[in-house]
Amino acid sequence: MKSMYRQIQPSMTMGLDQQARELAAAGKDIINLTAGQVDLPMPETGKEAIRRALDANKTFYVPATGSQALKKAVRERMGWQEGELLISAGAKPLLNAAIACICGPGDEVILPAPCYTSYPEMVRLSGGTPIVAPGDPKHDFIVTGEVIEGHITVRTKAVLLNNPVNPTGAVYNHEALRGIIQVCKAHDLYLIADEVYSDFVYDSRFISLYEYPELRERLILVNSASKTYAMAGLRLGYAVAPAPVARAMGAYLSHALGCPCSLSEQAALAVLAMDGSYVDAMKIVFRDRRDKLYDALSKIDVWTVKKSRGAFYLWLNVSQLDDDIRFCQKLLDQEGVALTPGRAFCCPGYVRLAYTKDVSILMEAAARMKRFVERSYSNSCTVNS
Ligand code: PMP
Ligand code: GLU
User: Fold this and answer.
1) What percent of the chain has pLDDT over 70?
2) Hey, whose CA ends up nearest to atom 3 of ligand 2?
3) Which of 25, 51, 182, 236 is most buried, taking the most CB atoms under 10 A from its CB?
4) pLDDT in tens, 37-49
5) Which domains are seen in the chain, by residue range?
6) Alpha carbon of 165 to those of 159, 196, 197: distances in Å?
7) Which residues line ligand 1 (CB under 6 A)?
8) What is the separation of C-alpha 219 from the centre of its chain, rounded to a whole number of angstroms?
9) First and final CA of the chain: distance in angstroms?
10) 246 closest CA partner among 214, 209, 218
11) Is residue 58 over pLDDT 50?
C-alpha cells in the first residue's frame, strides 16, 4: 500500500480515552480525565425532538450541507449574517473540508501551538504540511501575529486558530486577534477558526473572529453542538465561509460524509431555539470545577499550573519531574488517574487534565496526584497543606 494515509496517526486523545475506558471496564479503579467532552446530560428538549423525529420517520437523507431550516436557526443563534452556512457531522469534518479545499499537496498550514491533536493529521490528510508555531509559555502560549509571520513561506495557505484553546484553556483577546488578522490580510492567507469552546469562557466576554468584518472574505469559522449542548456523540457541527470556499466544502462533504444525521438535525433545531439558561448553568458548573481543581493542584508546587480562562482543561508543566508520556503512564499505573500527555498537542513536557467530571471525582484525582508525586518525585516535591 502506497497511500499517504498509511502515515496518518490515529487520534491520541481518542485512543487514550478508549484505553482508560477499557481499564475501567476490566474492573480497575480509573479516573478518566483524558476525554474532552461534556459529561452533563443534553437538554431535554433536544431528546424530545429526536423521539418525535423517529416517530415521524425522519430517518432519510437530508441535504449534503444541512437543511435550510437548520441553517436559518444556526444563522440566528450564532449571528452569522454574511457568508454561506454549512452543517455537517461535527466540527471535525468541517475542519477537514476547509483544509482540503484550501490546501493541496505541498501547501502549508500554520498551527499555533500547543494545538488540538487532530490538526497536524488533518493537514496531512490533504497532502499538506503542518507548520507548528509555538506560543510563549510566559504568555499563556498565546501566539502573536509576529510569531505567525515568522513561519510564513511561499507555500503558506492558511492559519488554523483554535480559541478558546484546547489544551491550554487560554483565550485570545482583541489585541492578539487583531495581530493575527493583520498578518493573514498582509500575506493573503485564509484564517480557519475553530471556536467549539466559545460558550466556555469564564472570566471575560468571548470575542469571535466573526466580529471582524474586514476578515470575512478569508474567514472559515467552525463551531458545533458537541460542547455547547453536550451532544458530542450526536455529531452536529456548523460553519460559515465565503461563498466560493463554502461551495467547494459542500462538494467535499457531499462525497465524504453524505449529509448530517437527520435525527441530530432535529435535536439541533430544538436546542438552538432555547434561551441561554442551559448554557449559563453549564458554565457555572465548569467554572466551579475549574476553580476547585486549580486550587487543589496549585497547592502542589512541583509543577506550574495556570488557571484556564476557557474550554475545560488545566495544563500542567511537569517538565521538572519527568517526560510527559512517562509521567502519564506512571500516574495511570500507580493511581489510576488518566491524563493526556502534552506531546498529543505538539508540546512535550506538559500534561492536560479535562475537568469533565463531578467536583468530588476531581478532588479525588487531585489527592491521588498529590500522593503520586510525593511518592515518585520526593526530591523535587514540596506540598503546601
Ligand atoms: N476542535 C477542538 C479544538 C476540539 O477540542 C474538538 C473536540 N473533539 C473538536 C474540534 C471536534 O469537535 P466535534 O465533536 O464537533 O467534531
Ligand atoms: N475534544 C476532545 C479532546 O480533545 C475529544 C477527543 C477528540 O476528538 O480528539 O479530548
Assistant:
1) 97
2) 36
3) 236
4) 999 999 999 999 9
5) 4-41+277-374 (3.90.1150.10), 44-272 (3.40.640.10)
6) 14, 9, 8
7) 36, 90-92, 116, 162, 166, 194, 196, 224, 226, 232, 237
8) 18
9) 57
10) 218
11) yes
- 466559545: which residue's cell? 198
Amino acid identity of residue 369, one-letter, is M
Max Cα distance, the chain (Å): 65
Ligand 2 atom nearest 227 alpha carbon: 1
Q: Could you tell me the distance, in angstroms and rounded to a whole number, from the CA of residue 17 to the centre of ligand 2?
A: 9
Average per-residue pLDDT in the chain? 95
212-259 pLDDT, tens digit each:
999 999 999 999 999 999 999 999 999 999 999 999 999 999 999 999
Instruction: Give residue 384's pLDDT.
Output: 45
Cell of 228: 455547547
- Extract the C-alpha cell encoding 385: 497543606
Counting every residue, how long is the chain? 385
**Grid-cell match 515568522, residue found:** 150
**Residue 380 pLDDT grade (very low, low, confident, very high; cuts 50, 70, 90):** low
Query: Amino acid identity, residue 126?
Result: S
